[in-house]
Amino acid sequence: MTKLPFHGDQAELISMRDVDKVFGNGTVAVRDMSLSINQGEFVSFLGPSGCGKSTALKMISGLLSVSKGSITVNGHPAGAGGDGDDIGYVFQEATLMPWANVFENVYLPLKLRGLKKAQARERVENVLSMVGLMNFAKSYPRELSGGMRMRVSIARAMVTKPKLLLMDEPFAALDEMTRTKLNDEVLSLWKTHGLSVIFVTHSVFESVYLSSRVVVMAARPGRVVHDIPLTSGYPRNAAYRMSPEYAESCKTVSSALEGTLDNVDLNH
Amino acid sequence: MSTSTIDPTPAAEIATSRNNPVIRRERREKRLRIVLPIAAIAIALALWEFLVWYNEVPHYLIPAPSLIAKTLVTDWASLMQSAVFTVKLTLMSLGLAIVGGVLLGMLFALSRPIEMSLFPFAVIMQVTPIVAIAPLILIYVSNTFVALLICAWIVAFFPILSNTAIGLRSADHNLRDLFSLYRATPLQRLRYLLVPSALPYFMAALKIAGGLALIGAVVAEFVAGTAGQNTGLASRILESSFRNEIPRMFAALFLVSLLGVVIFLFTSWLSRAVLGHWHESEIKREG
Ligand SMILES: Nc1ncnc2c1ncn2[C@@H]1O[C@H](COP(=O)(O)OP(=O)(O)OP(=O)(O)O)[C@@H](O)[C@H]1O
Ligand SMILES: [Mg+2]
User: Fold this and answer.
1) Which domain, by its residues, includes B42?
2) pLDDT per position as a tens digit, A104-137
3) Is B286 touching A (CB cutoff 8 A)?
4) In ligand 1, which atom is closest to the CA atom of A28?
5) Is residue B183 one of the residues assigned to a domain?
6) Which residues 187-226 on chain B approach chain A with CB closer than 8 angstroms?
7) pTM for the complete prediction?
8) Which of A217, B55, B145, B285 is within CB 3.0–4.6 Å of A47 for a Cys-Cys bond?
9) Closest by alpha carbon to A166, among A70, A86, A240, A262?
10) Contact call for B7 and A112, based on CB within 8 A
11) How many domains, in total, are found in chain A?
């Protein structure tokens, strides 16, 4: 923990150039999106519902193809990275296998990679204790609370030791308290593992608390309208939430976000 | 990281004492679930026995349960032989329905064009009453047992096929994405994602198909009845009806029902054993 990652201090990790995404039904989910993200950044995607945040995330991970333009991750086209270009993906819902217990769920990425259970055990147990669920390795998802399930999902995303963590509104369904706790956990993971994180959220406060940079998007068609660097240093904690610079950043981001709503027809 | 502070106590530490009212209530419920059906059936039998005796109903109309039981004992040898035949027919057709239904269901799930071209045949097979096709099959297939097997198989096959195909497609789309993200091979995807997702659907189909296989076996044998050499329970029922041996008819009927109940209990148990620890349909809700 000697060196804190700051935005812009390292090589470029993700580069999106003039990316369009048009779905089969004609919906233009993303138009002309260009973005460059450096290693070690914590970037939030913020924007109204339907502005293409999830779509952008899926394209970066290679789960969706682009209709136009190009995306590279670590120099490779999205989704075509070699070994060691692992991406951790945390979906909006916990997305656990209901038939498998917590251990099996977290072990899955390693299993798919051909690791035997005995070889993987230590790594799985490490990430489980990292999210504080060591005692629940044998529990089934239905026996966990929503926040615990989310933590299992985060543990699973971390088990391959990815350099890039994509999170799609991971805490949207949680209460404020749990959300705050999990926010701190994510920050701590980011710090200790030298991750790069893209974090999709609806919440101005969450984005300001967490990120080193907020990308504000607008809908119809989905596009980037603001790219706001947040210079406040880390570590961030409860005291940061009380600070004037936090309030200032929230104000800046809020007004940027409000601008995106002006040209949205909510009845549409 | 100091993250473990928000964990509640693990479930194992919660008291499991004998005096725990929840556990006691659960035990009582478990006992009731066995005792009540047995008591209800016993009462119904007693009432039947009483009414037959009280109204002096002749045994060639409605035999008393005691007479049926007696017939079961005296005709044990021939009835057992028939029962074994029907059991064999039912289980073999069910087994073949599972193999065929699962294989074709997988094929359907793999390829839409195959499904679109073959599904009409499956539907035609399903909607045409088996009694209507059975005579044809009996003509075309010289071996009666094989002909009966085909009839029972046709009836049991469809639910397995359609549920397997739907089940294999029902996997959560985010989980599918997850498997793509980690570059799962098609075989890994099938084994670790599609098959477990399809299991609840398959189990539901198995419960239905078990009963249908028995119905198919009995119905087909009724149709084949006059052909003679077959010796299943349906033939015993037909034969008794010709000879006006009503108690024997009831005895055979009893064995058919018993067989159906056993199949039902077994498939229910299997479903619970396989899905009990995770699937909504088999989880006992608390409270
Ligand atoms: N598979 C799809 N087929 C057609 N249109 C789609 C598909 N997925 C998303 N869209 C459309 O693309 C647009 C962007 O969707 P996306 O899910 O990326 O929004 P989002 O910003 O993540 O919204 P939210 O905050 O509500 O999750 C929406 O208008 C949506 O209707
Ligand atoms: Mg979304």
Assistant:
1) 9-51
2) 999 999 999 999 999 999 999 988 988 889 999 9
3) no
4) 12
5) yes
6) 188, 192-193, 196, 199
7) 0.82
8) A217
9) A86
10) no
11) 1
